[in-house]
Specification:
single chain, alpha+beta, four-stranded antiparallel sheet, two-stranded antiparallel ribbon
Length: 178
C-alpha cells in the first residue's frame, strides 16, 4: 500500500485546501480555517442543488454583488472563486454560517479527525503548492488546482459523501517539489 495515498471524502480536502489558500492570501490560521469550512459548505450546497436534493440558493451567485440575506455578515471574502459571508469579531475575521461565526477550533478538530496522522503532511504539501503562486494568481487558479488533485469519486448522487484517493505525490508534483 502506498503511504502517499489517503482515502478521504472531498469535503475535508476542500476545507483544508481553501484554508491554506486563505492563509497564503494573508489571513491568519483561525480566520483561514473558518473560510475553508465555509467554502466547503457552500460547494456542498451547490452540488446538492445540481443533483436535485437541495432547494434554491440563498447566497449570491458568482459574478453578481453579494446581497445581505440575514447571514450576520459584515463583508464578503472571495476564496477559491467563492464569495464567503464574513464578519469581524473580537477574535478576528470569521466566516459565518447563518448568523453565527464559525469556530476555528471545531474546524481544526474536524480536519484532525478526517486526516488523522496525515494532516501535517497534507497541509505542508498544499502550502508548498499555494506558495508556488503569487497571491493574485493563486486566487485565480486555486479551485482549478484543487480539481486536479481532489479525490476522484462517482458523479451525481452516487458520489455524494463517497471517499476517494488523495495522492500526496500528485500534490508535490503540482508544486514542483518532487
Amino acid at each position: 500500500m502506498n503511504e502517499n495515498i489517503i482515502t478521504i471524502n472531498r469535503a475535508p480536502v476542500l476545507t483544508l485546501c481553501s484554508a491554506v489558500v486563505a492563509e497564503q492570501l494573508g489571513y491568519d490560521r483561525d480566520a483561514a480555517l473558518t473560510l475553508g469550512k465555509a467554502v466547503a459548505g457552500l460547494n456542498a450546497q451547490t452540488k446538492g442543488r445540481m443533483i436535485g436534493i437541495s432547494g434554491e440558493p440563498k447566497a449570491p451567485e458568482r459574478g453578481g454583488p453579494p446581497k445581505k440575506v440575514g447571514l450576520a455578515e459584515d463583508f464578503w471574502v472571495e476564496i477559491c472563486n467563492r464569495p464567503v459571508p464574513t464578519k469581524s469579531t473580537d477574535d478576528g475575521v470569521r466566516a459565518v454560517i447563518k448568523d453565527k461565526p464559525i469556530d476555528p477550533e471545531k474546524v481544526h478538530k474536524y480536519l484532525a479527525a478526517k486526516f488523522a496522522d496525515f494532516l501535517g503532511s497534507v497541509r505542508e504539501a498544499m502550502a508548498q503548492l499555494a506558495a508556488a503562486f503569487e497571491p493574485e494568481e493563486l486566487e485565480d487558479v486555486a479551485y482549478a488546482l484543487y480539481e486536479q488533485f481532489r479525490p476522484k469519486i462517482a458523479s451525481g448522487k452516487r458520489g455524494r459523501g463517497q471517499k476517494g484517493e488523495l495522492d500526496l505525490d500528485l500534490l508535490h508534483s503540482l508544486a514542483g517539489t518532487t
